[in-house]
Amino acid sequence: DEELCPDDCTSSLQGRCDEQRGCLCNPGFAGPSCNQSQSPGQWWTRTQSDPVFEARHGMAIAASDTLLFGFGGHNYGKIFADLVAYDPVLSKWRAFADGASSKPSARYTASLTLAGNYLYLIGGSRDEQLFNTTWRYDLDQETWQDMQPLADCSLQCPMEWATFNVTTCYRNETVIVPTNVTGSDNVTEVNNTNTNTSDTNATLINVTTVVQAFTALIEVCDPVTQLPALAGHTATLVDDTIVVIGGRQEHDEFHNRIHVYNITANRWTRRSSAPVLFTEVYGHTAVWHASSRRVLVYGGIRPYHGRYAEAFDDLHAYFADHDQWVEITPRSDLGSALVRPPPLSHHSAVLVDSDTMVVYGGYHHRHYLEELCHSYKMYVLHIA
To answer: What pLDDT is recorded for position 190?
Structure first.
């Protein structure tokens, strides 16, 4: 077992030992034994090992104000199906209950989104298998639920009727238009063949006729609005919806549509925006900038010619309210030199202080200026 207070918190000069929490370091020191300097601009180790958490990658991550949640991942020898959380105050991992018969299977490259007291696990992969499932974890009850969302549906006329629009049906060239009516009201029955309203022959019919007509409306669901099996996508909380961007599908095809999950209605819809090059992306990051109502998407792997793909360093903004994309070119405050991350994929990005995006790490496979596969640098973008 790991020693609770290694080196007596560096001989008790840089911290003190707590029997429950381990070393509590004095200001300016950090690490399991308080042996690391906590100077600005430096990294320090929070925990070296933990019996609850095994080393892995491809884990789905979500964060609250107090905990860092993670699900799944793999270490090349094992695929995980556990839900864990890291407590930065205690510097410890904890495992959540997973004894229920209904729970998500082991997977990696899924997405995890925190909304209120629920975690939403979407998609993911396990070897050659990809998932399109939407699971919800109740943090209060510590239980999983397979949400089995509906596709986007609309009310339409029965098949033997023609469809005029969502709220109007017509049959035998007679239009029945609903109004705000009560049981004793009448509505107008209009001959559909006459488009000149001044010449229209209108008669009154009882509202019962309208009620009978509209009870025949049926719910029609469009299967293309359902989420396809995806992995390596992002899932960003926007109000009471989760916006899913990018990812890969079966046969390593890039997903080029935006799907939105309505949490309240438990329903998927597909946004109408046409697929564009930068929506075909995998291993990217996405953060929600609330004040400008934009999802900021950085980097990732995208196709650029035929069957070839590579990492990019582009920053794009998706205006969720208007279903529109724009490319952003950040300016540099360091003279003429533009400071920006290199082309990256599988990096991390978080929004801090509401208007600052921090990008760290990632894979960029640079071999022409320097022999470097993984980035160790941190970049900060101030969002105006």
So the answer is: 37
Residue 250's DSSP bridge partners are: none
Tokens 């943090």 locate to: 139
To 5 degrees, how large is the angle CA 180–CA 181–CA 185? 150
In eight-state DSSP terms, residue 282 is B
Is the Cβ–Cβ distance between 205 and 186 less than 8 Å? Answer: yes
Q: Are 90 and 110 in contact (CB under 8 A)?
A: no
Residue 261 sits at φ, ψ, to 5 deg, of -100, 120
pLDDT tens digits along 71-124: 999 998 899 999 999 998 777 899 998 767 789 999 999 999 999 999 999 999
Q: What share of the chain is helix, strand, coil (3-state, %, to 5)?
A: 5, 45, 50
Q: What is the DSSP string of 130-181?
A: EB--EEEEETTTTEEEE--PBPPEEEE--TTSEEEETTEEEETTEEE---S-
Handedness of CA 328, 320, 276, 58 (dihedral sign): positive
Return the amino acid letter for 61: I
Q: In what order do the strands lie in the sheet with 294-298?
A: 285-289, 294-298, 315-319, 324-328
Give me the sheet containing 234-238, strands edge to edge.
234-238, 241-245, 259-262, 267-270
Distance of alpha carbon 95 from alpha carbon 75, whole angstroms: 18
Question: What does DSSP say about strands 267-270 and 259-262: parallel, antiparallel, or unpaired?
Answer: antiparallel
Amino acid at position 266, single letter: N
Full-model pTM: 0.77
User: Cα(21)–Cα(230) distance, rounded to whole angstroms?
Assistant: 40
- What is the residue whose two structure tokens read 């390593």? 252
Structure tokens at 17: 């030992």
Token couple for 212: 């009978």
Amino acid 333: pLDDT: 55
Which distant-in-sequence residues (6+ apart) come within 8 Å of 40 by Cβ?
none
Give the type of residue at 121: L
Report the C-alpha gap between 364 and 153 in whole angstroms: 42
Cα angle 140-143-145, degrees, rounded to a multiple of 5? 120
Q: What is the pLDDT of residues 179-199, one digit of tens each?
A: 333 444 443 443 333 333 333
